[in-house]
Amino acid sequence: MANPLYDTLFGRHAGKTTPFIHLADGRCITHSDFLEHAAQIAHALTALGLNAGDRLAAQVEKSPEALALYAACAQTGVVFLPLNTAYTPNEVSYFVKDSGASLIVCDDVNEDGLTPLAQDAGIRIETLNADGCGRLMDRSANMPTTFEPVDRSGDDLAGILYTSGTTGRSKGAMITQTNLISNAQALAESWHFGDGDVLLHALPIFHVHGLFAATNVMLVTGGSMIFLPKFDLDIMIQMLPKATAMMGVPTFYTRLLSDPRFDRDLTKHMRLFISGSAPLLAETHIQFEKRTGHRILERYGMTETNLTISNPYDGERRAGTVGLPLPGIEVKITDSTGSEVSDGEVGLIEVRGPNVFKGYWQMPEKTREELRENGFFITGDLGIRESDGYITIVGRDKDLIISGGYNIYPKEVELALDAQPGVLESAVIGVPHPDFGESVVGVLVAQGGADLDIDAITDAVGQLLARFKHPRKLVVLDELPRNSMGKVQKNLLRNQFADAFTLQE
Ligand code: MCA
Ligand code: AMP
């Protein structure tokens, strides 16, 4: 009788009055307070009729209560499906329908927008707001503060996280209890986390990075987190002296470096700065060390695999590389036939281990395309392994833009643009952006020389797609550059618009 995820991350802290979450307003939530609240939510979910294996779609702001909802799902065996708060009802509708979710939990402010889709799907909506209040919390308030975890095995699903696809159709990555437990343990050990650590947590909690990597590591080691709703430069500067470690995307580091208050003295209490989700420029790495004396530890991961490759804690943290495979994880660099290439040669990064997901929800063909029978997952990232084992990410074999750590699949944006009146076709590209690393340019071709109404197109795309996916620049060309096979040459467009954001912003 066991629930490995709940027992390993949460149950081990039962009754402990040690701090777990520190809030910016000075409040502290102990492990025991947190678990009691999670148990009450678990009772509320059960009373709402949810059973182990059912899916719960949560589009909620970051709060301790939102994290307690994750714990309640682990405890009840309900599969947690966290959604980016920026998604439009149009996007949420796809995730809810595709996953067959039984319950949507959302903020009050989004309830009206999501009600038609809940009615359409014949499911309920409960609310949980940024301040931790809402109908789900009202239902939980008088529930018992202990809950017997539902039996689960390591192979059972803990979560489904949607990742966009190169075809424009999102895929639900099925993440098991073992995936999460093994990765939390590997990271805690590799990065020397302990119960004295205080993690500065400003990442969103609807992605692997903020929800699993950051939170699970702290849970497995018994440390605490300064839990901020989002990245705010002033608050980060204020909180840094109280932390021992931080995990962030490269934009966090470039924003911190843009502030003269961020210096050696402010970071003297820090033990570790970790970066991932997007490439950290070697230049940022070097500037960071000059300013603070700390070397950022860069690591690599993916929704389907959790985190897989990391620079070492004790050894050399080599700028521009993501380091070495984490313990228990195998990495191969392969050619298109799946054979390993020699050291120093570019190939596809493939990953195998207990961290690798179970497949895409109800997409066996997609799963077979990307997850080999021998257990290796083909990441779609291109890398080089040096003779001493260090791996450098050199590009992507997939058409993907990463903006401030958020993934944007051009195909999805192109489909939205192509559907607009007067648009014959479009190409969406990522070009350098000083804050977000990359940002989106949409190149349009008009039907028969029609005059395109750019404002109307911008508004229409705004209804369909989350703000972070919107092209920040739309340009009209007579035609798209194509090669002899008729394929759009995006590299030429990327060169042509390379300065779109660096010159003007
Ligand atoms: C916000 N906006 C963005 C982004 N974030 N636009 C493009 N890319 C973004 N990432 C929009 C806002 O809607 C707003 O639009 C405008 O940009 C400015 O917002 P601002 O207040 O400056 O942004 P912010 O709220 O400070 O957010 C920037 C951020 C945030 C801190 C970089 O995006 C963030 O926390 N990113 C982390 C993402 C992450 O955790 N990724 C992990 C996934 P307007 O003003 O026009 O309305 S990858 C993963 O999990 C794998 C496993 C891994 O390896 O880690
Ligand atoms: P996601 O699908 O949202 O989980 O994003 C995963 C993708 O982020 C990977 O496939 C990589 O392209 C990218 N990524 C993550 N970490 C790094 C890193 N340290 N350097 C370069 N790219 C990274």
Task: Describe the structure in your own words.
- This protein is an alpha/beta fold.
- Among the domains are: 1-152, 3-Layer(aba) Sandwich (Rossmann fold), CATH 3.40.50.12780; 401-504, ANL, C-terminal domain (GMP Synthetase, Chain A, domain 3).
- 31% of the residues lie in helices and 25% in strands.
- The protein has 15 helices and 25 strands.
- The protein has helices spanning 4-10, 31-47, 64-76, 89-99, 108-121, 135-140, 177-190, 208-221, 233-239, 250-257, 282-292, 364-370, 410-418, 454-464, 490-496; strands at 19-22, 28-30, 55-59, 79-82, 103-106, 124-127, 157-163, 171-176, 198-201, 224-227, 245-248, 272-275, 297-302, 306-310, 324-325, 330-334, 347-352, 359-360, 377-385, 391-396, 401-403, 406-408, 423-433, 437-446, 473-476.
- The strands form 6 sheets. It has a 9-stranded mixed beta sheet with strand order 2-1-10-9-11-12-13-14-15. The protein has a 4-stranded parallel beta sheet with strand order 4-3-5-6, with helices on both faces.
- Helix 1 runs parallel beside helix 7 (177-190), helix 7 (177-190) crosses helix 8 and helix 10 packs across helix 11.
- It binds methylmalonyl-coenzyme A and adenosine monophosphate.
- Residues 203-204, 207-210, 230-231, 249, 251, 276-277, 301-303, 403-406, 436, 467-468 line the site of methylmalonyl-coenzyme A.
